[in-house]
Amino acid sequence: MVKEGVWIGIDLGGTWVRVVLSDEKGRFIAKTSEKVDKRSAKAVSGQMIRLVRFLCRKHGCDVSSVVGAGIAATGPLDQKEGALIHPTAIKFDYVPLTVPFSEELGVPSYLINDAAGAVLGEKVFGSAKGLDNLAYITISTGIGCGAVVNGTLLLGKDGNAHEVGHLVIDCEGRLTCGCGKRGHWEAYCSGSNIPNFVWMRLKDMPQKAAKQSLLLKRTDGDLSRLVASDLFAAAKQADSISMELVEEIGRLNAIGFANVINAYDPSLITVGGTVTLKNKRAVLSPIKRHVRDYVINRIPEIMVTPLGDDVGLYGAVAAAMTYL
Ligand SMILES: [Zn+2]
Fold first, then answer.
1. Phi and psi at residue 278, in whole multiples of 5°?
2. What's the gap in Å between 194 CA and the centre of ligand 1?
3. pLDDT of 283-317, one tens digit each?
4. How far is the CA of 220 from the centre of ligand 1 (A)?
5. How far is the CA of 255 from the centre of ligand 1 (A)?
6. What pTM did the predictor assign?
7. How far is the CA of 168 from the centre of ligand 1 (A)?
8. Which one in 27, 65, 110, 148 has a CA-CA gap of 20 to 30 Å to 251?
9. Would you tell me how many other CB atoms lie within 10 Å of the CB of residue 79?
10. b/e per residue, 267-281, with b = 16+ CB within 10 A?
């Protein structure tokens, strides 16, 4: 039984931190968000504390009455310490979260990888209620995954059992990942790396055709300005090169999805993250078309998360309710 009262969910991403007050049924009472304060490692928890106090004051809720808080964050984590260790998006070696948060507010808190939290959110509040085998995959600035297998959320020794963005999908290692290694899934298909993939493929193409692509028009002739949304927008306008590249990215995503399916054998995969949510059909359709070429296990249902942008917040709340 979940304890009645107000719960807090915090979704700490690479760019935004979002905070929600929720009741024990996962009904959101109030939400707020800000760009992450990256001035110092300490500033990150300081900002969370300030946002929680602000939301509680605004909604007449005494902070000391809050039952518990879940913090869902992009890793890597040291889950026992409640801290981030060399996080990719916040450039400090060690970012303590749960200790300063709980000491300052007197509220127990629990840290979880954001994609692991999201799959738990899906199981507790989303489309996966009652399912014992499910996975959540986020395609956003990076790529991550959470998996529940036989009813158990997989966490790993430090809480980092979800770094599927760094699964190898290209043994030739044509592109280098942000982590420094070659051939990783997110080096090709994450929001921040799609431009690298496009540049690489355009170099291989007949230059005349490449020059006629809408991608050049969208970037005023300067492809170094290309962002992932330009590719999806040009594909939507039936630009043939862009459509071809979106399909190729879909095939690479299908390899990543197949690896997840072969490893965890889920009945359902829900998919979120900005790249997915902004381009639902362009992302999901090619995955569904190609995944059968790479799996041995029975193919699960694959759908966009019904929790949308809030999946991280639901995950944080679900983690607090489950583990505190
Ligand atoms: Zn990597």
1. -85, -15
2. 14
3. 999 999 999 999 999 999 999 999 999 999 999 99
4. 31
5. 16
6. 0.94
7. 8
8. 148
9. 21
10. ebbbbbbbbbbebee
